[in-house]
Amino acid sequence: MILLCGxxxxxxxxxxxxxxxxxxxxxxxxxxxxxxxxxxxxxAEVVRGDxxxxxxxxAALAGVDVVIxxxxxxxxxxxxxxxxxxxxxxxxxxxxxxxAADAAGVRRFVLVSMAGLDDELxxxxxxxxxxxxxxxxxxx
Length: 140
Description:
single chain, alpha/beta, about 45% helix
């Protein structure tokens, strides 16, 4: 089973559509109040949870072999949300997912980050710092 996080966003939505077009069974982690009708129509198994709530992650990871995460806070921030930050979602949230996946015995973890990101670039912007922190956590 594949768990896709970030499926309500642009890139994650494209990945979900590809899974559906290839009849690949997949599960998505969707925040509790987010509309998941499009994902249900694609055939996704929807599990409600949030990267910022570690206790919600084990249910999403039960029986999962592969995790793909494109989850990020940018879309919500640009839409005016005040209840999220780059650090809590892109950084700590993805680290929560990494820890939960490790505890669940997930074989493969795909973290969509930023091309060419290194420690020097990570110091230039909060998004880079959060993504780099998640990358380093995954490597550890």
